[in-house]
Amino acid sequence: MKNWIWAGIALLLITTVACKERAKKEEKATAPKHEFKPVSIPAAYTDPQQQAEYYVAHLWEHFDFTDTAFIHLPEITEQAFASYVQALHSVPKAKAAAAVKKMLKQAGQETLMLRYFADLYEKYIYDPNSPFMNEELYISVLEVVAASDQFEEEQRARAAHRLEMAQKNRLGSKANDFSFTLASGKKTRLYDIKSEYILLFFNNPGCTACKIYRDAMCASSLITGLIQQNRLKVVAVYPDEDLTEWRDYLPQIPAEWINGYDETLALRGEKIYNLRAIPTLYLLDKDKTVLLKDARVEVVEPYLTATVPPLP
After folding, report:
1. Fewer beta carbons within 10 Å, N or C terminal of the chain?
2. pLDDT in tens, 161-190
3. Measured between alpha carbons, how far is 57 from 66 in angstroms, rounded to an integer?
4. Longest dimension (CA), the chain
5. Residue 32's pLDDT is what?
6. How far apart are CA 144 and CA 147, in angstroms?
7. pLDDT at 127
8. For 46, which DSSP code?
């Protein structure tokens, strides 16, 4: 009798498992398929620049921003976002900014999605270690976040602060003046330096990346040549307080560079410059207009090559 009972229980279990597996398969078959529909660029757009502009303007038109399942599918959503960010860098600044704001407005249909994409923008174009870092473009994101009630008060306040800092020393604007002290004790100011180009190098003696930047600039025949021609001055500035460490490091800085420290700690304290990462490079012209801001060292030489006119 017991054998029959156990056989019945086993049969019931097998039937139950089979039903559950069948239900899962049916559910999977009927579940909506998540995919990213690629943008179709009209054949009339044959110029690569036109294609890039159309791409960033229309990429998200068929994306369902109300479906939060996409948040958990980075192989779809984040992959598309990475391609989008890369394309944003190849279109004019105004069109890139407009595309970002349009996309965030669409994402605002669902608060979770809006916050998710705001985080992606921070990761891709605000993180100093990202190859796509673009603070100027990130301003468009910050303007949306700081003004949106779909973010917590703390998030809006952080965005407002970042926005304030990002708007300092913007590309095309005049760099903020500041004073610094040389090893001799002499005090000078940025605007006292007269040169066709100035490369500001905010650095720290104990920073490995700073050494990499320093070595790259020393190894650049273009930068070295411009210094020898008195067309470029490299101004190395230490913005922190450990002067013993800074003085010990003095022999490591090329003698032809202008090397000083921020005696009053105003650069950080008064937030004259947004030094959220060290090293930081700024390239200025003779009028102290910002040509490159928070630039990676590998960007400087190609920019100078394309920009600096040869001597007559």
Report:
1. C
2. 999 999 999 999 999 999 999 999 999 999
3. 20
4. 109
5. 59
6. 5
7. 94
8. -
The region of weakest confidence among 45-49, 93-97, 209-213, 219-223 is: 45-49
| b/e per residue 57-96 (b: at least 16 CB within 10 A) | bebbeebbbeeeebbeeeeebbebbeebbebbeebeeeeb
Same domain, 132 and 202: no
Could you tell me if residue 42 is inside a domain? no
* Beta-bridge partners for 171: none
One domain for residues 161 and 252? no
Which residue type, as a one-letter code, is found at position 187? K
The residue to which tokens 């102290």 are assigned: 288
To the question of pTM greater than 0.70 for the whole model, the response is yes
Question: 248: domain CATH number?
Answer: 3.40.30.10
pLDDT digits (tens, 9 = 90+) for 268-283: 999 999 998 899 999 9
Q: In sequence order, which residues have a C-beta less than 8 Å from that of residue 263 and are 6 or more positions away?
A: 179, 180, 181, 187
Range of the domain at 92: 48-166
* Same structural domain, 64 and 148: yes
Rg (C-alpha) for the chain, rounded Å, is: 27
- Alpha-carbon distance of 170 to 308, in angstroms, equals 20
